[in-house]
Amino acid sequence: MKKFALAGAALIxxxxxxxxxxxxxxxxxxxxxxxxxxxxxxxxxxxxxxxAARGKTAFDEVCxxxxxxxxxxxxxxxxxxxxxxxxxxxxxxxxxxxAAAIGVNAHHWKFGDMPPQTQVARAEVASxxxxxxxxxxxxxxx
Length: 142
Prior knowledge:
6 helices, mainly alpha, Cytochrome Bc1 Complex, Chain D, domain 2
């Protein structure tokens, strides 16, 4: 009987671990993306270029639900893009274009894979990148 109880406990432990790995938001208390806390503080530029302003509009419509307002990330949902990991020398503009076109396998964070965002045109992604880069520069990421 002890063997069955031990095996059952081990199976539950494996199942909970698998669930936590594949559903990280459920394990960190952030069940509603609207309630999720930002991961970083973002200093905003006084003004945005016209292209970055268009990018902000597109970002707010498509990306902010996971990456947070001003790309600050959302606990349990998506990483901050205002972070040294996403500096141009590590994740260049083509990386952002590829992320939108084909998605991204999780590799820096435990939020799971990012699905493709095929509803966003390549030119619109370029504007989103301009917005992110201007935010990054204002926050010392170059």
